[in-house]
Amino acid sequence: MWILFIFALIGITSCINVVDPSINSTSYGFEVDYENNQFLLDGKPFQYVSGSFHYFRTPRAYWRDRLRKMRAGGLNAVSTYVEWNLHQPQPNIWKWTDEEDVVAFLKIAQEEDLYVLLRPGPYICAERDAGGLPPWLLTLVPDIKLRTNDTRYLSYVETYLNTLLEQVEPMLRGNGGPVIMVQVENEYGSFHACDTAYKERLRDIISAHVGTKALLYTTDGSTESALKCGKIPGVYATIDFGASSDPVATFPVMRKFEPSGPLVNSEYYSGWLTHWGEVFQRVPIYRVTKNLKTMLAMNASVNIYMFYGGTNFGFTAGANGGENEFSPDITSYDYDAPLTEAGDPTDKYFAIRDIIAQFLPMPNIPLPTVKPKGDYGSVFLAPIAKFLDKDILKEMSVTAGTYDEPPTFELLSLGHGYVLYETDFPTGVNDPAVFKATVNDRALVYVDDYLVGTLSRTLKIKTLIIQNPYAKRISVLVENQGHLNFGNLAEDWKGMWKATIDGKKINNWNVTSFSLDNIQPLDKYTTINYANENLINGPVFLRAFVNIEGEPLDTYIDPTGWGKGIIYINGNNIGRYWPTVGPQVTLYVPSVWLKTGENEIIIFETEYIPANRKMKFVTTPKLG
C-alpha cells in the first residue's frame, strides 16, 4: 500500500486552501494539509467517517432520530444532497420551511455533533426524479442542454444556488457552523458533455458564497476518464467506489489527480440501488467492513453511501437507462444500508461501528434498538370512483385541452403523474388495425373505454393490434415512472409521440393531465358497485379506514395480490406499489403520518383488484 505515498511525493502544487503553518488553532476552518496528506479541522488533524442521509427521504420529525443513530454508530459527519426540484417545484415557487427546511437539518446535525458534507447539485442523481433537476426546465426551454454551459440553463442554476447558499453561509465551518465541505456538481466525469466552462462557472458561483470557509470538492468514479472530465481547477478531487474494489489498488487513480492531500472515498457503497423487476440488491457485511478497515488504516476519510436510505415517497423515484434502456427505481430506498428504511439498526450497523471504534473515539450515546411496528390488521377497500368517468377526470385534472400533436408532460407543465390522450378513430381503418406509438414510460390503451393492451418503454413495446373496426375512440393513459436520474440522456421527456393507426398519423387529441398531488376532490365520493377484477374499463379509486388505538407506530402496508398503483395514507402519498413485478411488495408507513383514531387509506389502482379487496398492515417489510 505504500505505493500511495510515492504518488504523494510527486511535485504538483495545488491551489486549494493551502494551509498556513501559523494558523490560529482556535479559529474555525476546514482545509487541506498537503504536506501531511490530511485534513485540518480548526487547525487540527481530522479524519472523517461520514454517512449519507438525505433529509428529503424521511419526515422532518425523524431527522434528529436518524442523525443521533448515525452519531451513535461512530460517525462524525453526515453527507446530504440538496434537491433543487424539492425547493423550487415551479419557476416562481420556493420552499424552504417545514419538510424543506434544509438549514434546520444542518442545525440539528450540528446539535447532534456531526459535521456536514453538503452536496447542492444542481444535479444530484441520488436515484431521484430527473436527478434532482426540475422538469420544468424542459418546459421553459424545450431545446435546453442540461448540465452544460447553455446560458439559459445556467441562469436558472445560478438563481437556485445563490438562493440556497445565501441561507447556508452562516452554517459554513468558517462561520462556526457544521458544513466543512461543499460539492461542485456531482459525478460530472460520468456525463458525456465534459464541459470545462460549465464546471468552472459552477465553481465560481459556489465559491462566491463559500470562499475559504469550507472546502470545495468533486466526486467522481474511480477511473481516469471520470476524473479527467470531473476534475475542476481549484477544487479538491475525490473518488467513489464500493466494497468490491480494493482500496489499495483504487486510490492510486485519485493520486494521479491529487498527488498529495488526504485520500477520500466520497461514496463507499454499503448496499446498492434496486429497480422494479430486479432482485433486491444486497452487499455482504464482511465485504463492507473489510475494505472500510483498510481505508481507515490508510488515514482515508470515508463517506458511507447510504448509511440511512429512507424512502422515495410520492413520485420522487427516478430511473436509469437512456435511449434504448429504461429501468425505474423502486419506492423504497432501503439500499441494504446500516439503518433500515424505518431507521432500525441492522447487523451491518453494529459491524461498521466496531470497525470505526478501532480508529475513532466513540460517543457516549446509547445504542439504538429496533422499534416495535404496528400490526393493524387487514382493511377492506371499497371502490369509490372510476377514473375514466367524465366527472372524475374533470375534478382530478390539472390541465385539459385540444392539441394537433400529443404534447409531452413537460409542455403541459406536469412534472409527474399521468396524462390521458384521447381521439376519435380515423375512418377506413383495417381489421385488425395496428396502433403504434412511442411512450415514455408506460401506457394503458383503451378502445371505447375497454382495455386492449399496454405500451412499455422498459419492455420496448410500441405496437398494439386493435380488432374492432367499428370503434369510435382510442384513449391512451401514460404514466411517468420517473425521469432518468443518471446517464447521458439528461433531457428525458415524458408522454406520447409518433402515434399512428395503420401507418397514418393521428391528429386532434384531447389531452388531460393529472398530478394526483391533491386527492381531496374524492372526499365527496362514496362506495360504488364495481365487479371487475381486471380493470378493463380503466383505473379505480378505492377507500378504506383503519382505527388505531394509542400512539401510532411505524408500519408497512402489504398490497400482495393487487396490480399497480399508488397508496395515500391520510392524504400523504407513500409511493408506488407493483407487487406482481417486485421485488418490493410492502410500502413503509411512517407513524407521524398516522393518528390515534380513524385513518383514511386511498388507493389509485390501475390494473387489477383482487376478489377480497384487502390490504394488510404488517410489521416486517417485504423488499426482496
From TrEMBL:
EC number(s) reported in the record: 3.2.1.23
Gene Ontology MF annotations: beta-galactosidase activity
Enzyme class, broadest EC rank: hydrolase
Signal peptide: 1-15
Keywords linked to the UniProt accession: Glycoprotein, Glycosidase, Hydrolase, Signal
Any one biological process term the GO annotation gives: carbohydrate metabolic process
InterPro entries: B-gal_1-like, BetaGal1-like_ABD1, BetaGal_gal-bd, Galactose-bd-like_sf, GH, Gly_Hdrlase_35_cat, Glyco_hydro_35_CS, Glycoside_Hdrlase_35
Active site: 187 (proton donor), 267 (nucleophile)
Name under which the protein is recorded: Beta-galactosidase
Beta-galactosidase galactose-binding domain boundaries: 539-599
Origin superkingdom: Eukaryota
Catalyzed reactions per annotation: Hydrolysis of terminal non-reducing beta-D-galactose residues in beta-D-galactosides
UniProt family annotation: Belongs to the glycosyl hydrolase 35 family.
Residue ranges annotated for the Glycoside hydrolase 35 catalytic domain, each copy included: 38-358
Pfam families: BetaGal_ABD_1 (PF21317), BetaGal_gal-bd (PF21467), Glyco_hydro_35 (PF01301)
Domain Beta-galactosidase 1-like first all-beta, first and last residues per copy: 406-513
